[in-house]
Amino acid sequence: MTARTDGPDAARATRPATPVRSGGPARRSGLVRRHGPTRSGGVPPERAVRPVLGDDERGSGTALSASIIVVLCVTAFWVLVLSGWIASDQRARQAADLAALAGAHAHEKGASACDAAREYAQRNGGELADCDVSAGGGEYIVHVEVSVELRPALAGAPSRVNERAHAGFLVPDEDPAARRAGPNVPESAQDEDGPDG
């Protein structure tokens, strides 16, 4: 005895089964899988075509960064060098001024002006390179030159910086207007010395 079926169920029963391949999921018709949001045009972001840089453009950012770092390092180095040189020049100028004042004060007291200038130059980190005293007519001027080591020292650059200073005493000049007018004689004295006196 055989069972007989009619209608759509019969067609399904007689259709052979579709084999399933091993190693992957079975495909289903009419089923679309979406992996996250899609861009305009229906292409997922992970499957979108991205521009590929050429070989000549790769590494340009690294070279630019290295160049900027080198420029900054060189600039900082020269700023430090110039700052040190300016400080050395100011130190030499200050030492020369103090040495000249000390020499003038010592000459006024009757001591050696150059010995005092040398001592004060050494106290302020310098060396007395030259000293001279010009005096006459109650006036005197002490001329000194002080040398200070230039820091930082660089190859090919000067090793020392020199500064000059002067100090002393000068007699003030007489007023030219008073010299032309002659001596100031009171009128009473002129009347007493007159011919009728």
UniProtKB/TrEMBL annotation:
Keywords: Membrane, Transmembrane, Transmembrane helix. The chain crosses the membrane at residues 63-87. The keyword Transmembrane helix applies. Residues 59-105 form the Putative Flp pilus-assembly TadG-like N-terminal domain. The keyword Protease does not apply. Residues 10-19 have a biased composition (Low complexity). Residues 1-59, 165-197 are annotated as: Disordered. Pfam families: Tad. Residues 47-59 have a biased composition (Basic and acidic residues). InterPro entries: Rv3654c-like, Tad_N. Coiled coil: none annotated. This is TadE-like protein. It comes from Propionibacterium acidifaciens F0233. The lineage of its organism: Bacteria, Bacillati, Actinomycetota, Actinomycetes, Propionibacteriales.
